Amino acid sequence: MDEETLNSLQDAIIRVRMDIGARISIPMTQQIIIKLLQDANKGHLVGDGPGQLKISRTWTQNFLTSRMKWSYRAVTSCTKYLPKDWKEQQKDFVLQVALLVRHHNLTEVDVYNIDETNMLYNPAGNAKTWNPSGKIDGTDDYHSCEAYDHDSKQMITIVCAITASGERLPLQYIFEGKQYKEKKNKRTNKMERRLDEYGSPIPQFGSCPMECKPPGASFAQTSNHWANADTTLAFFDELIIKHADRRPDTSKPIIVIWDNAKFHCTDEFRGRLKSKYGDKVILCYLPTNTTSKLQPLDVSVNGAFKQAAKKRFFEIAAEKCVEQLNEERGVWDVDSR
Q: Which residues, 6+ apart, have CB-to-CB distance to 316 below 8 Å?
């Protein structure tokens, strides 16, 4: 197969992966190559006959690894595609923010960026461990072994915020747990949700289950550890507004740049926010499905933050293991938190 044809195949596979977002497997690549050659009237080059090229799994794998220098990686879900005109949307969005900044005579300290990110509080990993080779004692099993707490992954949501001046605000941690405060109705003798002055259920913010509580952090609980309107309003109450009230000129509004998560955009949420803070908060929504490119925290902070948090978790876990070894306690007593 000539170099021009190989280059065309390579470019097509790149477009399938990067523009369409499809998952590239060996069988998928085989069929893409065969189809492209057939469409280019070069199908006669492929086959089992003399002088023909057999697009085997081995050939396809070598094409991906040796020629394209690609590697086989784990896949995370991608529910939406990046719009093809995202660069134009970026320009429009930046212009929108710039006009608001100019109109209200704002500075870097008046512009906030907020983002939620999920993280494993106990990163148990892929349920594998290094272990002595051979049979497991007392069993006929060569492949698996027991490990303490191997499946106790605990997912939490962390809400981050920074200003355009580079100042980092304390974090909000959202754990799975009881979501709302309750009280007993003396007439019915049943537990009912407590309501605030706006008629909304009051979130239940319990104690932080982490050993080391970060200074100034906010803690919330929901039934599934995800952020919602209540936790986000609490984030504004406890962190954003308190921080904004320490600005040199508190008469100015603040701009909040964030994504268009479903509850961010509801009339109910925006109404509750406006009833509390009036025109003090201006919400700027990033263009749909562009957070991977335009969300500052998502692009430059969250990944490094998760890596640092994971490293710190293993440091604490190792310290506890060594401590308990020194105290001659069993490893089954290790508190993974």
A: 211
* Rounded Cα–Cα distance for residues 260 and 274 (Å): 17
pLDDT single digits (tens) 289-304: 888 888 999 888 888 8
- Whether the CB-CB separation of 224 and 176 falls below 8 Å is answered with yes
Identify the H or E element spanning 175.
strand 172-176
Task: Report the length, in residues, of the chain.
Answer: 337
Nearest CA among 125, 114, 127, 58 for reference residue 257: 114
Which tens digits make up the pLDDT trace of 186-208?
Answer: 777 776 766 666 666 665 555 45
The number of helix segments (H) and strand segments (E) in the chain equals: 10, 8
C-alpha 86, offset from chain centre: 20
**pTM for this model (two decimals):** 0.63
Phi/psi region, residue 123 (left: phi>0; alpha: psi -120 to 50; beta: rest), is beta
pLDDT (0 to 100) of residue 153: 52
**Which two tokens mark 208?**
């932080």
Q: Is 55 exposed, middle or buried (0-12, 13-18, 19+ CB in 10 A)?
A: buried
**44's tokens:** 């006669």
